[in-house]
Structures are given as C-alpha cells and as structure tokens.
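Hi both,

Apologies for the delay on this - the queue was longer than expected. I finally got the flavin-adenine dinucleotide-bound model through. Below you'll find the protein sequence and the ligand SMILES exactly as submitted, and right after that the structure tokens for the full complex including the ligand.
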Amino acid sequence: MSQDLIDTLLDPQERAFRQEVRAFIQDNVPDETRRSADLGRHATKPEVRAWQTALYNRGWAAPSWPTEFGGPGWSPIQQMLYSMECGLNAAPRVPSFGTKMVGPVLYTFASPDQKAFYLPRILKGEDWWCQGFSEPGAGSDLASLKTRAELRGDTYVVNGQKIWTTKAQHANRMFCLVRTSSEGRPQAGISFLLIDMDTPGIEVRPIISIDGSHTLNEVFFTDVRVPADNLVGDPGKGWTYAKFLLGNERSDITGAGRSRRQIERLKTMAASNAIHDRPLTENPTFMAALADVEADLTALEFTELRFLALHARGEERGTEASILKYRGTEIQQELARLLREAAGAYAMAKGEESEAAFAVSNPEAGHLAAGIVQEYLYGRAASIYGGSNEIQKNIIAKLQLGS
Ligand SMILES: Cc1cc2nc3c(=O)[nH]c(=O)nc-3n(C[C@H](O)[C@H](O)[C@H](O)COP(=O)(O)OP(=O)(O)OC[C@H]3O[C@@H](n4cnc5c(N)ncnc54)[C@H](O)[C@@H]3O)c2cc1C
C-alpha cells in the first residue's frame, strides 16, 4: 500500500494507531468479504454483523460518539484515520443509520429512557435501522412530506408512504419523519418518530436498482399504531433533528478511504497489458485524468481534516458536510468512470460473472475488471442520495457565498 500525504503529517503515536487499525481490520475481516467489496457486491447482513461484533468487543463500535455513551474518545485525526483505513482495506460498511444517524440524534435530543434503551442496542448491532424521510414528491423538497401521524390517546396512528428506504427489508426499526400538524410553515408540523418495523400495517416492497441489487424499498403505512413514547424530543421539532442528522449523513458519504483504494486499483490496471494492447501508463490522456483525480482526492482528505479540526473547536459554518458530500461523490463517480475505461470491453460482464466469463480466455483481465460495472452503475446514485449535489450547491451558495 503506497504512503499517502496524510501519513507524512502524523506523529509516531498517530502512525502507530493507524497501523493498529489496519492490523485489526486485516485480522477481523475475512479475505473473501474484502474481495466481494471489490466485486461491487454489497456486504451481506451476516458479514456486517460479524464485523460489528468485532468492533463492539474492541470498543470501536461508534467512533464519533462521546465516551459517556460508549464512544472510544478518539481525536478528530484518529476518527479520520479509522475511516480511511476501513475504506482502504475494504472493511464491510456498517450501515450508518444506527451509529452515524439516529444514534447522535438520540444522545443529543432523546429522553433518558430512550437513551438507556436504544443506545446500547445500536452499539451492539442488535437493532438494524432504516431511514424513513423521502416520499414520492418529497425528496429535495423534504418539508412537503405528507405521511401523517395522528395522536389518539397515547398512540400515534401513522398513514402514508416512504420511498427509497435503503435496507428496509433487513431493518427492525425505522426513524421516520411524520407530519403531526398542518398548521404554520410546513417544517413546523414535522415530528421525529421511532417505528418498530414489525408493527401491523407496515408493508415493505422492493425496488431493484440499475446494478441489479436489492437495497432500496417502498414502505407503506396503513393505520400503524405507534406508542406516543416513541416520539423523540418535542412534537413539531422533527425538522431541527433531521437537519442535525443530515449533516452527519452527508459527511459519511465522502468515502475518501474507499476512493484511495480505487486509485490503487486503477494504478495496478494501468500498469497491466492484460486488457489493452499497450498499458494505459503509456496513454497520456488517461494518466492525466488519473493524476487529476488523485490530486482532487488528496485535497479532499486535507479538507476533511480541516473540517474535523473546525468541528473540534466549535467553529463550523454549516456548509462542511455539503462540501464533503458533493466533492466526495464527484471523485467517486470520476474514479468509477476511469475504472470502466480501464476495464475496456471486460467491463461488460457483471461481478463474479466477469471473472468466470474470462477465466479461460484471459483470466488476468477478468480478475482486474471484476465488479467494475456494478460499482459504476450503483455509483450513479451517489450524487443523489443524502440530498442531491445540486441541493448541496444551493446550501453552499446560501450559507457560504451569501447568494
Ligand atoms: C440509492 C439511494 C438511496 C437512498 N436511500 C434513502 C433512504 O434510506 N431514506 C430516505 O429517506 N431517502 C433515501 N434516498 C432518497 C434521496 O434522499 C432522494 O432521492 C434525494 O433527496 C432526491 O430527491 P428525489 O429523488 O425526490 O428527487 P427530486 O427532489 O425530485 O429532484 C430531481 C432533480 O431535480 C433537482 N432539484 C430539485 N430541486 C432543486 C433545486 N431547488 N435546485 C436545483 N436542483 C433541484 C435534483 O438535484 C435532482 O437532480 C435514497 C436515494 C437513492 C438514489
């Protein structure tokens, strides 16, 4: 693994920490799981659970949480090194819905009883959460959401529909934005409700995405009865909690470690002559594009580090997560484009199939190109999920440029 520029800034303790994380991943993530990430396959629930358990036993289940709630007490640089090493070494992605999204909302805004019940379960990976925000007609314009929760005695009765609900088919809980009032500004009537996915009246229907995978769903609610105790914070304050949550979600999409791994893969492919008549290292146009994206990635890593320092000093401007999300996903998509180009005609077969398809005629090419088209196709969504990149640019323009 080549040394990146961040490494040159580290002191001996930080370098030792980075080595410790790397060794921990190598000892606890089976080679097969790592290889399947390179094949463009989403980690399976058992793979994620095994990794979550290893992290929990090590005290690393929630890198960014305060120690009083079970976080490891890492510095900003340690958090970043951890996340980079996970991407670089293809550790399974622990879904961010628990530790990165609803967890911080709960320890910041929830009641003592809710904290005591949910937080340990998130750390241990006992609950699998999904995010019920988007609806048909309420994506970018999230405040226009219509799913209603009507208070009857000590129960909310929920009716409506969510869409694009990632991993809802595996989830036992949903954190959900619901409309509890139609008075005043649309934002003012939104509340944040925790819903048990086994409650009668919930129907989950699959959406198959362009890469052929099933990660997305529609979720329908018909007279779903939810205890009023499952409301987080105050009724009508859901918009505030959602904005807090979306900041964490967007920062998590940056994916710098994973992009670094893709740069390494591209360099290996460029040096090989298994796919093209001459290695791509002799193609100046390709190599210039590779150099450009590597420079962009290095800039992103340093930007992330600067933002972590601002966060630690309480000096954020509110645009940091949008900048990281927008730049991070542009880099991911450019890398996927270059990988597809490097794979040439071998990009046409999917995942494991590509290795099998080319096993006889050109095994090295099949191995190099495996999974590239899946990653390329699913990656088209990166500029949409977590709030589209156009919306991120609007936020940056409004808050940072004052326009
Ligand atoms: C793979 C994937 C996973 C997802 N997972 C989840 C999930 O788990 N839970 C969940 O709640 N949601 C999820 N989403 C939904 C996601 O948050 C929305 O798709 C996103 O917010 C965009 O909303 P929309 O799809 O309704 O598009 P629209 O809001 O209809 O936008 C359509 C287009 O118009 C542009 N646009 C809209 N308004 C403006 C504007 N004001 N200025 C400039 N351009 C604008 C957008 O950028 C976009 O290009 C997921 C989406 C995807 C693709």
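Main takeaway for now: The chain has three domains: 5-94, 129-236, 253-399.

I'll put the files on the shared drive as well.

H.
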